[in-house]
Write a structure and sequence with these properties.
99 residues, alpha+beta, GMP Synthetase, Chain A, domain 3, 3-stranded mixed sheet, two-stranded antiparallel sheet, 2 helices, 28% helix
Length: 99
């Protein structure tokens, strides 16, 4: 039952905003990592996509912090949770397929 659980994007993003305000991600390469939003992409196992400005700069400890927060807040006891860090597409960057 918990294995199949889905969490809607609105509550996830409200939770993420509070978590990031309480404990912001560290600075990577001299710049603050901005975590934009989160959404659940899959159940079985619960998988979440987290969109960040520098996904490769997010340390494993911070990912574990997010996983533990999701597990506690949204009641996923003992369930393996996966987080995929993704870069948010820049709407102002030129698209390579338009040329």
């Amino acid at each position: 039952s918990v294995w199949n659980k889905r969490v809607s994007t609105g509550p996830l993003n409200r939770w993420l905003q509070n978590v990031v305000e309480r404990h912001p991600p560290p600075i990577s390469r001299g710049r603050r990592i901005r975590i934009r939003y989160i959404t659940q992409t899959k159940a079985r196992p619960p998988t979440f996509a987290v969109f960040a400005s520098q996904p490769t700069g997010v340390p494993e400890a911070y990912v574990r912090y997010l996983i533990n927060g999701i597990r506690e807040t949204f009641d996923f006891p003992g369930v393996p949770i996966r987080i995929n860090l993704r870069r948010q597409r820049n709407p102002f960057a030129p698209d390579s397929d338009e040329n």
